[in-house]
Write a structure and sequence with these properties.
Multidrug-efflux Transporter Regulator, Chain: A, Domain 2, 2 domains, mainly alpha
């Protein structure tokens, strides 16, 4: 098995060296001890898999705090798949809420754009005016 320096680990995982250092600072991956002879830190192959796990979880929208929880579950042999499913379900609900919020923002933008006459001075801009006017409270 090949010794993996931080640069080789980064290359295998498809990330930069600074990403590995960032994950180490956040406690997502463990930094190997520095050899007493002053050589390079050697990373186990499992760190590559761990980094790939982190990256994929980020792509699915999980925060670093949530990924830390998932990694803890993954490392605990007593964890149950239902725990991971519950977290994934919570994330899905969060994503769906954000999608609804973005749709609402999109609808509001469509209204102000359609109301804009597209001419006149900036002090007569209906879009600017709509942003300066407080929105009515949501019921």
């Amino acid at each position: 098995m090949e010794n993996l320096t931080i640069s080789k680990t980064a290359h295998r995982a498809g990330v930069g060296v600074e990403t590995i250092r960032f994950y180490e600072r956040k406690g997502l991956i463990e930094q190997p001890l520095k050899p007493q002879d002053g050589g390079y830190r050697i990373y186990p192959q499992s760190v590559v898999q761990q980094i790939l796990f982190i990256r994929h979880a980020q792509e699915l929208g999980f925060s670093l705090r949530e990924i830390e929880e998932l990694l803890s579950l993954r490392a605990n042999p007593n964890s149950d798949c239902a725990d991971v499913r519950a977290r994934a379900s919570e994330k899905l609900l969060e994503v769906e809420r954000k999608i609804d919020q973005l749709k609402s923002i999109g609808s509001a933008l469509i209204k102000v754009i359609e109301a804009c006459p597209s001419r006149g001075t900036i002090d007569q801009c209906s879009i600017i005016e709509s942003m300066e006017t407080p929105a009515p409270p949501q019921a």
